Amino acid sequence: MAPQSEGIILLVEDNPDDEILTLRAISKKRIANPVVVVRDGREALDYMFGEGIYHERDTRDLPAVILLDLKLPKVDGLEVLRALRIHPLTRVVPIVVLTTSNEDQDIVKSYSFGANSYVRKPVDFEQFTEAVGQLGMYWLLTNEPPPNPPAESPE
Fold it and tell me: pLDDT at residue 28 above 70?
């Protein structure tokens, strides 16, 4: 059964080849959710906080999941993650780090900054497609998200 089209998937990816592969994998796994692609960390933050070219976006309309690369221009993925976890509106949005990095320090930092999951991009397209499909099934169908948006941050 294919996921229902509900929340947006925010793909934060600067590599055009990885963007195409991710979009193909999403399509191949029949994930119907719309995908918004931003290509650097600054654009990701602008999108989430309704700034810059996204100043008219309703920031209460949060993505169902964010697929976040770590190695990004302008603002790196760890800084994006940290900024999203500090802000009360975005701290509960599921964030999956989807990266080629196999550095232990990146894994530890990602989780310590609040990532919900860390997935290494497989080199093989079929493996990558399967990984994206599993992400979609879990984060878009199985996972029970918090109410959108949260009323206020817990103390």
Answer: yes
